[in-house]
Amino acid sequence: MQLHLVSGFLGSGKTTAIAAAARWLMQRGKRVGVVTNDQGRYLVDTAFFRLGDLPAVEVTGGCFCCNYDDLDARLTQLVESYAPDVVFAESVGSCADLVATVLKPLLELRHAPASLSVFADARLLRFRLLGYALPFSDDILYIFDKQIEEAGLLVINKADLLNSDERREVEALAREVYPQKNVRLQNSLDESQVAAWVGSLRANGFAAAAPSPAIDYQRYGQGEAELAWLDQRITLEVKPGQGQAAVVRLIETILERLAAQDASVAHLKFVLDDGAKISITAGGETGWRAAVPDLPGQQIALLVNARVQTGADLLRAAVAEAAQRVAGMPGVSVVLSPADAFHPGFPNPTYRMD
Ligand SMILES: Nc1nc2c(ncn2[C@@H]2O[C@H](COP(=O)(O)OP(=O)(O)OP(=O)(O)O)[C@@H](O)[C@H]2O)c(=O)[nH]1
Ligand SMILES: [Mg+2]
């Protein structure tokens, strides 16, 4: 079994690339499994993979590093129940120091052939390398930088969202700042580019930057603590034909409320019962409305995962206020499950192997 760890900041495109890679491999007769990971417990990504008929197990309530034994047990479960040829493990996007705390323990304790790819949103990376401001605190950006620093293979993703000059610029900057790394520009919405990424993955190749970069756990923990997490189920009862407009209004209003708080969205994502996934990331996509399908039914169930630089209570209030606003639309009622809203705990890895 080949194990490919995929890391990178919130919203950088890990799930998109893994889903496309898995489809591509499955069409070629390979058995593929996925391990998802998050600080939260109700994961859009797991639902998305399962709705796409991919066997997915999850490590929840913290990162792989702090739950290494759980990751190990989930891998064993996947191997015993499904015998995959390839497993992709997607680490939570606020996690850094994976080489020392996950990759090396997997190689040394589990003897699992494993690779690590680190994804970065091309737009954010370009801004960062040019020294332009990004909408996150210095401690959160410390995590962004450390993820990239430890990459053996850096995937500059969403390259399609840059023009050709910008693409050349970000690639040249990345090669200059990180001369030791394998760097690839990628559009993970293009199957052939994802296939090329998969083809380039070699277990034990691109394993890591060696040695693991030093990391200041106080800053890393502070960065995580400045992010708020919210997982919540939202059920809308609507009149026939009103579903799409109600969902769009809900998302627009959450974004408005967050903007009013001066909160910065790292990733706000929704999965609908029919498998549609709607994402808003720090890159500021405006095209998310096109991902909201026509919803002819009278009951619409959504799961929301929000990862935002703000306070957990403010985040909970933003979603509740948005739900109230949508419930003000004629013929619409809204039921919210209790929100799981919190700040990630201090990172405390099970193992750390330099
Ligand atoms: N244009 C473009 N959009 C992309 C690409 N890769 C991912 N996206 C979009 O970026 C958004 C976030 O993608 P995800 O795959 O959910 O990101 P992620 O890294 O798994 O996010 P977290 O799990 O929350 O950290 C989605 O709207 C994707 O469709 C790409 O190469 N090009
Ligand atoms: Mg994901």
Structural write-up:
- By secondary structure, the chain is of the alpha/beta class.
- It folds into two domains: 2-223, P-loop containing nucleotide triphosphate hydrolases (Rossmann fold, 3-Layer(aba) Sandwich); 228-342, Alpha-Beta Plaits (2-Layer Sandwich).
- The protein has eleven helices and 13 strands.
- The chain has helices at 14-27, 44-51, 68-82, 98-110, 122-130, 138-149, 164-177, 191-200, 217-225, 243-260, 312-327, and strands spanning 2-8, 32-37, 56-59, 86-90, 114-121, 153-157, 182-185, 228-237, 264-272, 277-281, 299-309, 333-336, 340-342.
- Strands 3-2-4-1-5-6-7 form a seven-stranded parallel beta sheet, with helices on both faces.
- Helix 7 links the parallel strand 6 (153-157) and strand 7.
- Helix 5 packs across helix 7, helix 6 packs across helix 9 (217-225) and helix 10 runs antiparallel to helix 11 (312-327).
- The two termini are 25 Å apart.
- Magnesium ion (MG) is lined by residues 14-15, 45, 90.
Task: Summarize the structure in short.
With 354 residues, the protein is an alpha/beta fold.
